[in-house]
Amino acid sequence: MAKKTMTRKAADNEYLHKDFHGALSNGIEYLDKTYGEEAVREYLRQFANTFYAPLKEDIKKRGLIALKEHIEKTYKIEGGKVDIAFSEDEMTVKVAACPAVSHMRSHGYQVARLFVETTRTVNEAICEGTPFAAELLEYDDQTGRSVQRFIRRVK
Questions:
Q1: In what order do the strands lie in the sheet with 82-86?
Q2: What are the counts of helices (DSSP H) followed by strands (DSSP E) for the chain?
Q3: What DSSP string describes 69-126?
């Protein structure tokens, strides 16, 4: 019998990591209860500055379009609905419901009290050292619905 070989790469598989959000939520809750709110924010800042370093560099080079493309790609992968109003100097992102929060709630996972910081603190960290600043204008703890704004810093 002839031997059949199948070659696959990780990129060939559908990208899903939704249970990661449940683990992250538990980690945030642990940090909050054990070390306090600032420890949560510091952890998320360190994570964002490392993980999103290439995105930060892209934002410095190409501006908000780099962040817009990143957000659109992320929400497409995660199965979320996002509405973006965009110009070179300002971008407003409206998220109907956070896919992570929706997944956790539908599976009975605890959503950490400070899970909002995965949006606020991470966005602020992504913008640090770039010409842009991030603001979280609205956030609903139950659904993760949010309005996020990115604006060019005054020179």
A1: 82-86, 90-95, 146-152, 132-139
A2: 6, 4
A3: HHHHHHHHHHT--EEEEE-SSEEEEEESS-HHHHHHHHTTPPPPTTTTHHHHHHHHHH
Q: Give Cα 63 to chain centroid, integer Å.
A: 18
Q: Two tokens at 35? A: 């070390």
Compute how many other C-beta atoms are within 10 angstroms of the C-beta atom of residue 76: 10
Torsion sign, CA atoms 101, 12, 53, 83: negative
**Residue 143 in 3-state DSSP?**
coil
Q: How far apart are CA 63 and CA 79, in angstroms?
A: 25
pLDDT in tens, 13-35: 666 676 789 999 999 999 999 99
pTM: 0.88
Sketch the domain layout of the chain as residue ranges: 17-152
Q: Which CATH class for the 17-152 domain?
A: alpha beta
Element at 24 (helix H, strand E): helix 18-35
